[in-house]
Amino acid sequence: MFAERLHTLITNPQAIADLRNYFGIGVPPGGMPFTGSRFEHLAGGGDRPEVADRFTAEDLVAVQTLSVTVPAPVALDILEGRLGARLSGLLQAIPRDIDMVDAEADVLAEGSPADQAWSLLCAQYGVDWVIAGKLLARKRPRLLPVYDKVVRCALGRPRPSFWLALHAALRENDRALHRELLALRQVAGVPETVSALRICDVAVWMGHRAEGHACPR
Questions:
Q1: Which pTM value belongs to this model?
Q2: How many domains does the chain have?
Q3: Sign, Cα dihedral of 136, 110, 123, 148
């Protein structure tokens, strides 16, 4: 059901126009892309080598392009305190130059460094699960997806986790879904520097909203 629903959303012909609209491709003069189009690329990206294993102020601004804000006390702790040091240690153990489809499942499983980072933010520091996910997606955009209330509304809450469900879906049928995302990116004219996971997120988010679901971002 999860993979079928995902396939339906990303193969909808409207997905091409949605992506172009979101990323501002072919937008008429005066038109503006969605602010989220800058999420991965702002200031050169959160996964560029010199900052890949630590959170910066640029990362905190980047998540704001997706309509969330890290609470100020948490933001300061990330930038200057113990939380930032703990997250940095975990980021060092999370692969940077790998797509989700190429990763082994244990990289995304419960207890993995990525899961520990998410749990640290949510369980120990009270960060909203959507914000925590977007922070991690900023640092590892090829490996960790954006998962928010709209995407959850569209695709549900798969078990044991969204990460593992998406990973399995991408690898099914000789990676057919992953190849569909790459083809969608090419046809829409979105730069190859935008990850397949981000193409997936935008296509699902835009498509679900178009169906008339008033889910909060």
A1: 0.94
A2: 1
A3: positive
